[in-house]
Structure formats: C-alpha cells, structure tokens
Amino acid sequence: MAEKRKAMVKIKPKKFKVGDTVKVDFIVIHPMDTGMAKDKETGKIIEAHYIDNITFSFDGKPFTTMKVWESVSTNPYFSIKYKVTGKGKITVDYTDNKGEKNSKSKKVKPKA
Amino acid sequence: MERRKFIQSILTASAVAMVATPNQLMAEEAKKEAKAEAKTDTPALKGPNDLTLEEAIKVITGGKEVKKSDKIKLTVPEIAENGAVVPVKVLVNHPMTEKESVKAIHVLNTANGNTRCVDVLLTLANVEAYFATRIKLSQTQEVMALVELSDGTFINTAKSVKVTIGGCG
C-alpha cells in the first residue's frame, strides 16, 4: 500500500571501525506541503502532506526518534550521530500525516 | 551626447526599479491577500498545528523554566537567500552518559504559522547531542534550539536569520 519513496541513508565517513562515532544522514523525496500554500495554477490550497515521525533503529532497536512538522523543507534532510557497535543494519522507518509508512535501510559494515 | 545620457539614466533607473519591485510586489500581494482573506467569511489560513512560539515552548516544557545557555551551538546562516531551505545545525556541549545526558533537541522558529520544526529524542547510542536539518522560514525571524536535559531542565539559544525570499509557498 505504501508508495516506494526515494530515500537515502548515508553513513559518514564510509570507512569506520567498531567504537567509532559516525554521522547518519537520512534524505527523502517528499513534498512536505504545509497546507498553507496555493497551487499557482489552480489557485486551490495544496493539502498538507508532510513526514511526521521518523525512527532510526539498529538491528531492530530504536536509537533515535523524531517528531517532524511541516516547517521542515521539501525533500528533507536529517542528520544525527551514532556509535558503531558492530556489523548490522540501520533502518529508518518514517510515516507521514496521510498515513503513508515507509522504510529505508543501510548496512553497517565496520572495518574492524 | 545629452540624449544618450538621458536614455542611459532612464534605463538604469528602470533597472533599479525592476530589481526593487519584486520584493515590494510580493509584500503588496501578501498584504492584499491578507486583506482579502480578512474580508471574506473564510478566516486567514491557519494550519491545524499552528502554535505561537510561547505556546510551543509551553507544550514542550510543560511550563518549566527555560534558561539561555551557551552550551548549545546553533548554526544557521545570517542571511538565507532561499527561505525554503535554511540549514540548521545544533550541537550541545553536554555529556551523553548514564549519569547525565541530553534527552531531546527541539528546533523551533519564531514566525511561521507552526513554530515547531523537529523534536529529536536522543539516546546514549547517539554519543553526541547533534542534529542537523533544513527548514522553511516564511520571513526574517529567529531559529531556536530548545534542549531538554536528563535532569528534567530545559536550556535554549536562538539566532536570527534574515530571509530574502520567504519559504512557505
């Protein structure tokens, strides 16, 4: 039922070891419509459509959650830090105010 | 010679006028729209999440005191060319240990309809109380980082961002 949204989870730097703190970036293609803007052609109000909740998990265990509001830019970007504990997978689950649920993962492959 | 100078001066004058007017026009249009909306039965656009800064702070802190703190490093541009994409970075110089940590970073604005932008709930796995995003600002205003510490106290800091082109559509 959920559209497949284009999203990216990036880990920086690309090379890291267990115990390192890395930066985890999440970017997603989403209009983040506030519900206050008018369509320039039709003059009608564009319905509010924005991401409202994001959960970052490592191997199923949440480590950061966010409540997001419509003041965030279109195609939003979110960045946090994370301590690498081992090999695994970071998953970003996100929902929007229209009930859309999506998910994007990134494997965590430490060098040592 | 005189004629050429005269024409040149008109051209530069109109060029200046043209550069000046878009902002003026936008401001005038905004005023017209606001007036028109005030006159009709439908009220001026108010989103369902609209909260003033005071209201938003109260919701977040439950009415607790908020102290200004320079432990919070808030990075925003002084001038945002495009109000639709204003980068915001927050780094709190505070331990992230079992004993004491940063529980949450709240990013707020002061003049959008909804002054809330993002509420980030951190855990010790984050190691650093860091968060970055990009927000929309409707006009020149302040961006605030409101931080909740594990001892239940709240600290904040705010910076002004000059917005040349409003970002809310």
Question: What is the CATH architecture annotation of chain A?
Answer: Sandwich
Summarize model confidence as the mean pLDDT of chain B: 84
The portion of residues forming beta strands of chain A comes to over 45%
Count of alpha/pi helices of chain A = 0
By CATH, the architecture of the largest domain in chain B is named Sandwich
Note the main sheet of chain B: 6 strands, mixed
Radius of gyration of chain B: 22 Å
CATH class of the largest domain in chain B: Mainly Beta
SSE run of chain B: HHEEEEEEEEE
User: In the CATH scheme, what's the topology name of the largest domain in chain B?
Assistant: Immunoglobulin-like
Shape of chain B: elongated
Explain what this protein looks like in three dimensions.
- The complex is a heterodimer of chains A (112) and B (169).
- Chain A is mainly beta.
- Chain A has one domain (7-108): Sandwich (Immunoglobulin-like).
- Helices cover 0% and strands 48% of the residues of chain A.
- Chain A has strands at residues 7-12, 21-28, 51-58, 61-68, 77-83, 88-96, 101-108.
- In chain A, β6 and β7 form a beta hairpin.
- Chain A is elongated and about 55 Å long.
- The model of chain A has no long low-confidence stretch (mean pLDDT 95).
- Chain B is an alpha+beta fold.
- Chain B has 2 domains: 1-45; 53-163, SoxY domain (Immunoglobulin-like, Sandwich).
- Chain B has 2 helices and 9 strands; from the N terminus they run ααβββββββββ.
- In chain B, the strands form 2 sheets. In chain B, strands 1, 3, 5, 6, 8 and 9 form a 6-stranded mixed sheet that branches.
- The termini of chain B are far apart.
- The model of chain B is unreliable at 17-22 and 24-43 (pLDDT under 50).
- The chains are: A mainly beta (112), B alpha+beta (169).
- The interface between A and B is medium-sized, with 35 and 35 residues.
- β5 of chain A pairs antiparallel with β7 of chain B, so a sheet runs across the interface.
Task: Please outline what is shown here.
The complex is a heterodimer of chains A (112) and B (169). By secondary structure, chain A is mainly beta.
